[in-house]
């Protein structure tokens, strides 16, 4: 089997800019290597992230749920499993995400402006939004969208 071209996996990066405003940028994981997870396993594409302690939470956001303006508690990967949700950042960008979509929440250190700090999020539609949230024990960065390549 010949090695195919490396994939790119899209994600939304919610981050804090140099002025303390939360923003969103479409980025992609691109540092994939074609290897088995062990010598007995067929090769697959893996993008190994920086080692860190992690806390995994399975979340169900009820229909009509709105999480008022807040920052992510720590840098965290959020993968939508079912349903839909939205994230609105302080710059006015609103992104809706559904099953299979990925987001990195890293808007720590924002500065309140017009009653907004961090991001606003909530469910979209008439079904709950289920997700897996993986919080990382890493230092948040400022103005580095796409740092998880």
According to CATH, the fold-level topology is Jelly Rolls
Strand order of the largest sheet: 2-1-10-7-12-5
The Rg value, from CA coordinates, equals: 17 Å
- What is the name of the CATH superfamily? Jelly Rolls
Can you describe this structure?
The protein is mostly beta strands. The protein has one domain (9-29, 52-136): Jelly Rolls, CATH 2.60.120. Helices cover 0% and strands 48% of the residues. The protein contains no helices and twelve strands. It has strands spanning 9-16, 22-29, 33-35, 44-46, 54-61, 66-70, 76-82, 84-89, 94-97, 102-106, 119-124, 129-136. The strands form three sheets. A six-stranded mixed beta sheet has the order 2-1-10-7-12-5, with no helix packed on it. Strands 6-11-8-9 form a four-stranded antiparallel beta sheet, with no helix packed on it.
Give a short synopsis of this structure.
InterPro entries: RmlC-like_jellyroll, RmlC_Cupin_sf. By secondary structure, the chain is an all-beta fold.
């Amino acid at each position: 089997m010949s090695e195919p071209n490396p994939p790119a996996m899209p994600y939304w990066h919610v981050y804090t800019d140099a002025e303390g405003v939360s923003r969103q940028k479409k980025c992609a994981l691109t540092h994939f290597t074609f290897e088995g997870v062990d010598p007995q396993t067929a090769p697959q594409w893996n993008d190994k992230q920086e080692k860190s302690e992690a806390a995994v939470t399975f979340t169900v956001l009820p229909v009509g749920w709105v999480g008022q303006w807040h920052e992510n508690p720590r840098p965290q990967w959020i993968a939508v499993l079912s349903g839909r949700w939205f994230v609105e950042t302080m710059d006015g960008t609103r992104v809706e995400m559904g099953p299979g979509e990925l987001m990195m929440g890293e808007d720590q250190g924002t500065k309140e402006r017009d009653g907004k700090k961090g991001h606003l999020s909530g469910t979209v539609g008439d079904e709950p939004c289920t997700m897996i949230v993986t919080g990382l024990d890493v230092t948040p960065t400022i103005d580095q969208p796409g740092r998880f390549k």
